[in-house]
Amino acid sequence: MEQASVTEGALEFNPFLPEVRANPYPLYRRLREEDPVHQAFPNVWVLTRYADCLAVLRDHDRFSNDFRKSNNYEMFAQMLGDEAPELLDKERARSMLEIDPPDHTRLRNLVNKAFTPRAIEGLRPRMQEIVDELLEALRGRETADLVDAVAYPLPVTVICEMLGVPASDRLLFHGWSADLVLTLDPMVPIPVLQRAQQAVDAFSEYFQGLAADRRRSPGGDLLSALIAAEEQGESLSEDELLSTCILLLVAGHETTVNLISNGMLALLRNREELDRLRENPALIRSAVEELLRYDSPVQLDGRTAMTEILIDGRAIQPGGQVVPLLGAANRDPAQFVEPDRLDLGRLDNRHIAFGGGIHFCLGATLARIEGQVAIGSLVARFPSIELAADAVERRETITLRGLKSLPVTLGPVEW
Q1: What is the tens place of the pLDDT at every residue in 341-400?
Q2: HEC secondary structure over the chain
Q3: CATH (domain of 251)
Q4: For the chain, what is the domain count?
Q5: Residue 415 falls within a domain, yes or no?
Q6: Which among 38, 142, 161, 391 has the fewest CB atoms less than 10 Å away?
Q7: 104-136: per-residue pLDDT in tens?
């Protein structure tokens, strides 16, 4: 009955419906087939076809990442009322997610030096050590929550070690990060924005202290490298340093938590593919690409049109918001054969789970390797792993798609 509510009747894009949060793909399919350039709200257009989504993501000349340039920005500020000046501070340094060239180019070039594929691949042995320790802690247990046991601690540990955050401080970030990512969703209410601002303030205060320590005693970590770049005249301001650290910490683990948990859920619900991976571990690289496509950790992105643009005959006015649905594009039959089928050996899997264009996810290689290590190890070490419950509880976020928990029965371990 729930599924009928999104596959029958008037066509409406409402990602907040519980049945859509549980399974958005029937709605995505209907939008693609009936109204692929769908006006969801005034000045907001939702795209569901792969070609349309990719074209917008790659076109940074005509589409901006800056929400403040949209027609809906002032309306949003008016809705916030007296809270607007604090919650929409126009003077604060914004992250790379929110800016366009040339500032985006400058910041990204600075950080790119630490995120080269070769540098990230060099972290694979350390990732394996971390996963081995996490799985060793599960030895002898009958059940576990894979989110708490593996999916969250692995990427948090890795990005904290990269930034030089002491192990004793990592628990501080859980609540701050959870509050901050809620602002990625549309129509964020005032209490959520207030908590997010408090999280930004807490993050900033923490990294100000850590940066002061690194200025006195530089190390081999990413924070020390960013400080060195700033002091060598590459125009990384103090505020930009703080916003970049916050982005790297939050984005450096949120996507991967969802990749690992969504991926394991998909495998546990598709036992033939799970067994296929166990019997052929060399499939892990293509397996992770398919899991990224099949149930994308980031479901949507946003752009603002800078000029009038026609998409499939629909006129998007300057200042109009365009929302490429990455999750829908990754199930487009025009791009993927049998897109609703999980196929770990899928060839030519050019999904857009990490976005596209100049804002392609900076940490894509990091997330991929973390997913390969975690999922590959879980499948190999626990041959009898099963879901402990038919229903799973999803996170309440719309932009990020993930699980609050993933309870499993472990069975015997193979080491």
Answers
A1: 999 999 999 999 999 999 999 999 999 999 999 999 999 999 999 999 888 999 989 999
A2: CCCHHHHCCCCCCCCCCHHHHHCCHHHHHHHHHHCCEEEEECCEEEECCHHHHHHHHHCCCCEECCHHHCCHHHHHHHHHHHHHHHHCCCCCCCCHHHCCCCHHHHHHHHHHCCCCHHHHHCCHHHHHHHHHHHHHCCCCCCEEEHHHHHHCHHHHHHHHHHHCCCHHHHHHHHHHHHHHHHHHCCCCCHHHHHHHHHHHHHHHHHHHHHHHHHHHCCCCCHHHHHHHHHHCCCCCCHHHHHHHHHHHHHHHHHHHHHHHHHHHHHHHCCHHHHHHHHHCHHHHHHHHHHHHHHCCCECECCEEECCCEEECCEEECCCCEEEEEHHHHCCCCCCCCCCCCCCCCCCCCCCCCCCCHHHCCCCHHHHHHHHHHHHHHHHHHCCCCEECCCCCCECCCCCECCECCCEEECCCCCC
A3: 1.10.630.10
A4: 1
A5: no
A6: 391
A7: 998 898 888 778 888 899 999 999 999 999 999
